[in-house]
Automatic annotation (TrEMBL):
Alphabetized UniProt keyword annotations: Flavoprotein, FMN, Monooxygenase, Oxidoreductase
Domain Luciferase-like per the UniProt entry, residue ranges: 31-389
An MF annotation (GO) of this entry: monooxygenase activity
Chain residues that bind FMN: 61, 107, 157, 161, 233
Entries under InterPro entries matching the protein: Diverse_substr_monoxygenases, Luciferase-like_dom, Luciferase-like_sf, NTA_MOA
Listed Pfam families: Bac_luciferase (PF00296)
NCBIfam families: FMN_nitrolo
Domain of life: Bacteria
Organism (species): Arenivirga flava
Family: Belongs to the NtaA/SnaA/DszA monooxygenase family.
Name of the protein in its database record: Luciferase-like domain-containing protein
């Protein structure tokens, strides 16, 4: 390896709920997850991350209940599986008030609420955090979410990305084009707060949205929040190529990750950007201990307490595998249930028991390590250098032990190896892409609206498959 070691983007993976992705673990001794309704949960967590050297916190969100498994939401409700859950945006100001550096990525869906009010909320957050906010763009995968917003069923997958593309066009016009940088003058002598010459309507008229503007918020430090996206589908990858700056790629193996990352970077180039305009991060599980034995003991306990029901409900499996004897061939189950369209396709072959074991144990994959700080740091360096990841979203098994142990034990080791950068005084975008890059680069599609240019020149929409 030549030059400086590649730094790690280190996010904590959170959700404003009880059980996000590590089901069955909220009742563990000392786990604070039941406190997610309290402001102090978020301020305490934010301080751990700020002092612990994290880049930021990433807040997932869904706007519906997991109600496919066993034909209803009961399993999810019983387990606290993303219900009850609260709005992710609203905890950000509290965390920002007690920190100066960490970033905040929050999930918001483009499928159900129109863009104008959301653009304003994000600008507000970018002001209040002094440029530390990011948006995880999702199109929502839950059927129940569609029914919460007046639809009978989900909008088809690729169509959701087409709507998202226009949603992005609107918010770019508001964030980048509606106000000039020097429009806010704050001239006490003349009693002029803003110069109307520098503020304009956007007059967007599209297939899905009509928005007049002007944007109600003045330009914030980043203007457009850092654009995150989580995807793996061809439509999602094309969308990421045009819009995303940080992509969460699924993938259980190094090869999966490399293929996804390559696909995203190629898509970015197709959209006039550079492969280096994208940061690719993965969800990772780290169980660290002062000794190997301590780490293994913890992991054994987490595994023992993991809820299979929770995993199956989260996967939206329409078939209850736990109702079959373990030795039943999975093909027999699938034959009886032709419409297996959960979020994870069941692999053919093997027995029910083998599939259940895989769903529980196999969730860990390549980006998972149990061990001492040295073992963990070695493994993370391998992910960075061999696989080419840019960062991780750290899965929480226990709040706040997961974050605190990583901060106390692993961060000093990563620092010694030059793998973590200090980001004092920087915006979130600068932490990810370097000082001086608080705003989107000129070759990003959003930049076409700067200074009010092109507001009346339609952009070529992304189109996937057949229109519905
Ligand atoms: C690490 C990761 C985190 C995700 N977080 C969310 C989330 O918080 N909310 C959500 O609606 N979808 C989330 N998703 C799902 C994605 O938005 C998307 O629906 C899924 O990856 C499938 O992508 P595709 O439809 O482009 O194939 C996440 C996906 C991944 C891989």
């Amino acid at each position: 390896m030549t030059g400086e070691p590649k730094p790690l983007i280190l996010n904590l993976f959170e959700m404003n709920t009880v059980s996000h992705i590590t089901h069955g673990l909220w009742p563990l001794e000392g786990n604070q997850r039941h406190r997610f309704n309290e402001l102090s949960y978020w301020t305490e967590l934010a301080q751990i991350l700020e002092h612990g050297g994290f880049t930021g916190v990433f807040l997932a969100d869904v706007v519906g209940a997991y109600d496919t498994f066993r034909g209803g939401p009961e399993t999810a409700i019983r387990e606290g599986l993303q219900i009850p859950s609260n709005d992710p945006l609203l905890v950000i100001p509290a965390m920002a008030a007690v920190t100066e550096r960490i970033g905040f990525g929050a999930t918001f869906s483009t499928s159900y609420e129109p863009p104008f009010a959301f653009a304003r909320r994000m600008s507000t957050l970018d002001h209040l955090t002094n440029g530390r906010v990011g948006w995880n763009i999702v199109t929502s995968y839950l059927k129940n979410a569609a029914r919460n917003f007046g639809l009978d069923d989900q909008i088809p997958h690729d169509r959701r990305y087409e709507i998202a593309d226009e949603f992005l066009d609107v918010v770019y016009k508001l964030w980048e084009g509606s106000w000039d940088d020097d429009a806010v003058v704050v001239d006490r002598e003349r009693g002029v707060y803003s110069d109307p010459e520098g503020v304009r309507y956007i007059d967007h008229v599209g297939e899905h949205f009509r928005v007049a503007g002007p944007h109600l918020a003045s330009p914030s430090r980043q203007r457009t929040p850092v654009l995150f996206q989580a995807t793996g589908s061809p439509a999602g990858i094309e969308f990421a190529g045009r819009h995303a700056e940080v992509v969460f790629t699924g993938g259980r193996t190094a090869e999966d990750f490399r293929r996804n990352a390559r696909g995203m970077r190629e898509a970015a180039v197709r959209h006039g950007r550079s492969g280096d305009d994208l940061r690719c991060i993965v969800q990772a599980g780290v169980v660290v201990g002062r000794t190997e034995e301590e780490a293994q003991d913890r992991w054994r306990e987490y595994r023992r307490r993991t809820s299979i029901d929770g995993i199956l409900a989260h996967a939206s499996l329409p078939v209850d595998l736990t109702a079959y004897p373990r030795e039943t061939p999975i093909d027999v189950v699938l034959r009886g249930e032709p419409a297996i369209t959960g979020r994870f396709q069941l692999p053919p072959g093997g027995t029910v028991g083998e599939v259940l074991d895989k769903l529980v144990g196999g969730r860990e994959g390549r980006y998972f390590v149990v061990g001492t700080p040295t073992v963990v740091a070695d493994e993370i360096e391998r992910w960075l250098d061999e696989d080419g990841i840019d960062g991780i979203n750290l899965r929480q098994y226990h709040s706040f032990d997961t974050a605190r142990d990583f901060a106390d034990l692993v961060v000093p080791e990563l620092r010694r190896r030059g793998r973590l950068r200090d980001g004092d005084g920087l915006t979130l975008r600068e932490q990810l892409f370097g000082a001086g890059r608080a705003r989107l680069p000129e070759h990003h599609i959003a930049a076409r609206y700067r200074g009010g240019r092109n507001l009346d020149v339609p952009v070529e929409p992304l189109r996937f498959g057949a229109p519905v």
